[in-house]
Amino acid sequence: MADTLLLPVVAAAILDGEGRCLVQRRPVDKEHGGLWEFPGGKVEPGESPEAALAREIAEELQVTIDAPVPLAFASEARGPRHLLLLLYRVERWTGTPRPLAGSILRWCRPAELPGLAMPPADRPLADALIAGSGKNAAHG
Fold first, then answer.
1. 12-131 has which fold?
2. 29-69: per-residue pLDDT in tens?
3. CA distances to 34, 53, 63 from 66, in Å
4. For residues 78 and 27, what is the distance between their CA atoms, to the nearest angstrom?
């Protein structure tokens, strides 16, 4: 598949002190519009995934993250593009999340994620978060 374009994307499972994670609803005019997803975005050329995650979270939520921990990944073919979605667990962050990208934010327990309509690539990430939800979480 020499013609396949790899599209690396990062996302954060931002956890609060009560073990809830932050999800955002995609704007209706975008691909997968109206579905819930973990905040994040595309990795720019020459950018590390962690730097991209910090930039995207700051741009979308006006939050500063610290020490993201790799949690899971998903791989999905989309025609000539191939999405590689990297999910990080973020327990340390500062600021109050605000929906700067025009989306709606929601805090939910990992066990609630299966009840949310999500893009297919986010499902394995939600499953990984559910499997690891017994860990303590706090933010700063």
1. Nucleoside Triphosphate Pyrophosphohydrolase (3.90.79)
2. 777 778 999 999 999 999 999 999 999 999 999 999 999 99
3. 29, 10, 10
4. 20
